[in-house]
Amino acid sequence: MQIQWYPGHMTKARRAMQEDMRLIDLVIEITDARIPLASRNPDIDELAKGKGRIILLNKADLADDGLNERWASYFSKQGIHTLAVNARTGMGLKKIQPLVQEACREKIERDRRRGILNRPVRAMVVGIPNVGKSTFINSFAGKACTKTGNKPGVTKGNQWIRLNRTLELLDTPGILWPKFEEERVGLLLAFIGSVNDAILNSEELAAELVHFLSRRYPGCIEKRYGFSMENISDSGYGVLEEIARARSCLLKGNVLDTKKAAGFLLDDFRGGKLGKITLEIPPEDVR
User: Fold this and answer.
1) Are 41 and 128 spatial neighbours (Cβ–Cβ below 8 Å)?
2) 167 close to 121: Cβ distance less than 8 angstroms
3) Which 8-state DSSP code applies to residue 179?
4) Which CATH superfamily is domain 8-171 in?
5) Taking the C-alpha atoms of 11, 205, 132 and 55 in order, what is their torsion angle to the nearest 10 degrees?
6) Where are the beta strands (DSSP E) in the chain?
7) Whole-angstrom Cα distance, residue 41 to residue 47?
8) Each residue of 119-132: pLDDT tens digit?
């Protein structure tokens, strides 16, 4: 599948982000713990040069616990403070404030030497669509500061949010990059819902997900839907047909509704009903 998606408002958002970088001390980047590398916008590294950095592996409850630790180690080795969190439940959020102070320690000490005391750290919150950025801000702030949604493109403009005397957040719209360098990246983003489902072929996408899951987490599909894949051809569509049978997804004439089955599979994966799954391994771990 060739997947590209870059709505016009994202070009404007990137320009605004570039201009706002001069106002902030720290960049808090929200990623999806299931695809920590593919869910990062590579533009951020260039835009955020010279700023304090924190990466939050959000939706960590849906990801493989062991790989959460390995990804945190991977980013930490690059000098980026990293923490696994669940913005929806608040898991890990109490550790962020001390992490902010650590990430901006040099800036805070520099201000102190200049006689500037108690100036709040200004942090820009960035992330691609649908990684839970707005949910994180609302949960971290303890109140509904931003709109949230389970589809990309909910946040349309920048807004400042004062959390306390030591920290202010700048919320930005989620932005992708104009062209995915690898087909794999587009697929992974589509799997987690960061690409608008309306432009995708759900059956083709679900068939690709079957191949990913069969390689990395064999048995998770069989356990969820209660059938054996032993005699199924090496075709994602063959598995979709079995899911359709298991969930009684039928069209007129008892024809299997593989499109509806594809929707079941994608929703179950995104909701964590197939188990704790991470689709990427840190590059240093690849053999």
Assistant:
1) yes
2) yes
3) S
4) P-loop containing nucleotide triphosphate hydrolases (3.40.50.300)
5) -80
6) 26-32, 52-58, 81-84, 121-126, 159-164, 167-171
7) 10
8) 899 999 988 878 99
**pLDDT tens digit string along 212-268?**
999 999 999 999 999 998 888 767 999 999 999 999 999 999 999 999 999 999 999
Contact between 91 and 64 (Cβ < 8 Å): no
pTM for this one?
0.85
Q: Tokens for 4, please give them.
A: 């590209």
Sign of CA dihedral 103, 104, 105, 107: positive
Are 178 and 6 in contact by the 8 Å Cβ rule? The answer is: yes
What's the CA gap between 129 and 20, in Å, rounded? Answer: 19
Residue 21 pLDDT more than 70?
yes
Alpha-carbon gap, residue 256 to 270, rounded angstroms? 23
Give the number of other CB atoms < 10 A from CB of residue 166.
Answer: 14
Q: Which residues contact 131 (CB under 8 A, 6 or more apart)?
A: 30, 31, 32, 39, 58, 59, 174, 192, 194
pLDDT at 270: 95
Q: Structure tokens of 129?
A: 């669509």
Q: What are phi and psi of 146, to 5 degrees?
A: -135, 160
Amino acid (1-letter code) at residue 286: V
- Give 182's pLDDT tier (boundaries 50, 70, 90): confident
The residues with which 250 forms a beta bridge, in sequence order, are 256
Strand partners, 170: 124, 160
Radius of gyration of the chain (CA): 21
Q: Going by C-beta distance under 8 Å and a sequence separation of 6 or more, which residues neighbour residue 22?
A: none
Q: Where are the domains of the chain?
A: 8-171, 201-285
* 257 in Cβ contact with 250 (< 8 Å): yes
Residue 30 confidence (pLDDT): 95
Token pair 């924190």 in the structure block, residue: 54
**Is the model's pLDDT at 150 over the cut of 50?**
no
Q: How far apart are CA 27 and CA 124, in angstroms?
A: 5
Asked: is 201-285 a CATH 3.10.20.30 domain? The reply is no
